[in-house]
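Checklist before submission:
- one chain only
- standard amino acids only
- sequence pasted in full

Submission:
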Amino acid sequence: MRVNRRESVFILVILIVAAVVRMSRLGLVEFKYDEAQTARSALAIAREGQLPVLGMVSSWGPHNPPLMGYLLAPAFALSRDPRVATGWVALLGVAAVGMSYWISRSYFGRRVAILTAALFAVAPWAVFHNRKIWAQNVPLFTLLFVASLLALVVRRKPWALCGAFTSATCLVGFHLGGLAFFVILALVIVLFRRRISLLPLCVGIGLAMVILSPYLAFEVRNGWPNVRAFLAAAGGQSTLDFQSLHMSALTMGGLHLEDLAGEYHGEFVRSILDLRWLDWLEVGLFWIGLLWMVWRIVREAIKFRGYLPDPEAARMILLMWWAVPVAAQLRHSAPIFPHALSLLYPVQHIIVALLAVDWLAGCRRRWGERCSRYLRRGVTVVAILLIVWHVYLLESLLTFVATTDTVGGYGAPLKYALSAVNQVQELAGEARGSQVIAVLPGADPEYDGSGAVFDVLLESGQRLVDGRNTLVLPDQPTAYLIAPGSSPGDEILSSLATQVDPVRQVRGGSESFYYFYWWQPSIVLPQVVWDGAPVVWASGVELVGYDWTRGDLQPGGQVRWTLYWRVTQPPPVGQDYHWFNHLLDSDGNRQGQADGAGFPTVRWRVGDTVLTWFDIAISPEASSPPYSLRVGMYTYPDVANVQLIDAAGNPAGEFIEIGPIDAIP
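Returned file contents:
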């Protein structure tokens, strides 16, 4: 394949543009629960030496394999900053643009290659998805898969089948949606069976099994949980429609990109120059190109009695690449979003480019070179307009989300949470030996979005607290970051610590802010200080006292009960504990209960004073006060009560009983 200087300049410019739109303003990338979970997996690999066998849970039930975490691990080995990993993924996207050029140049010609790469380089939805670190398709591996199939079918290279199996397995390893590529592979093996050799086929299957062996071994050992979840999802209630057909065309350009503006999509559209007719033109050309490709394949198959010449065989590969993922989602149990068809990038652009080049070739044969030259210039002008429009649309969207709270659309840009983390770490750095605690509306990174995000952004050892039920006061100076929605923990802390300015917006245009506090250790006294014999549990916890902070202490009412407890020694490694709080009537019958972890043991530090509150609903059938409260701890998840111990270290019961309680103080 010879490439002249002019063509080299074209592809270099295309790659530079592809890099700019993918790798600029990385602080504005979305960083939500999905991205954070993938980052946590990569950090565990890069920083802790873990080798996970499962990836994220997919939206439809089963866990994905963990390959995306391994792909991102080198970037997170360099830095915890998700912008580095995002840049790495974006760089792979630039390589995919180059790969799309190489494949198209090798099998469809120079003009198809340049037009394909140019359209793919700036396709808004493709660029948007390429600026995310999550468990989805990686177009570079899709193109490696297609390149292997084309080498097998067109170039008659039987060992290319090993490359097809390897890349298809990697695509499954990123996301289970990649199983569509194994369907394509099976179709190719059947339709072009005369070009298949047994040994490469066996080696390819072996490579696939090796790559997926940790995931498959987990399935075998645990009774195939993900396979069962997959089959349950496939057999569940669903809808049959043509939504995937529509989405396959929509994602090739910028149609409905304004949906990322959320509630402000109308305002976004009014703020830009509206050239969406160019996207509709591109979609129309795609459908015409698809029909034209099908007609050519059928025509040649009939002409040669089922045999496809190499050009049509190559187009058959493209047709399967588009048709199989689309057909797999004709029946779906949830709405289809654009990312679900990221498996297609960039086959739609190749199809449009093939149509344009075939049409120009036909015009040249029919009307001559002079007419064809004018038409070629017209096609070039339209292509340039489309490219400029898409670059403009992408930059306009980034500018809009940087200054607007796009609720229901584009997630909070990364730079705002990063700036909050940098500020709290700078605050902590002003005092030697100080700690950092983030008080959040949900601090379990496995389930809570804010917990997952700050688990990635904060340094190892810096702690997360769920301000909805817990506040931690260490015995060392501490800098606090308070996220919106962390009540009542934020309210309690504001009365105990010193607020430090400035506050930080949660995102551009938002009326919510991150707040910062500085805690200097001091004695914090509850309403009722425990003044009896020391109450110490075998878990290493000592009771300090308690509050009744609010509520209606009557049948059918609800009361908030706050425990003050101190960590006196490290808990056993790997053991977790929950509190139980039983509200009893005068006859000893349970009339209300509230259990909860309060604060996970992995985050305990000796010297911590912890405030944990519980809302206890009182049974409507309960008798009138007085009541008493039975408080204790149990191991979780095996639920075994933790012993109280006396001064000599001997067991002294399993709970304390407080009361009688007649009214809220």
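Reviewer check: The mean pLDDT is 91.
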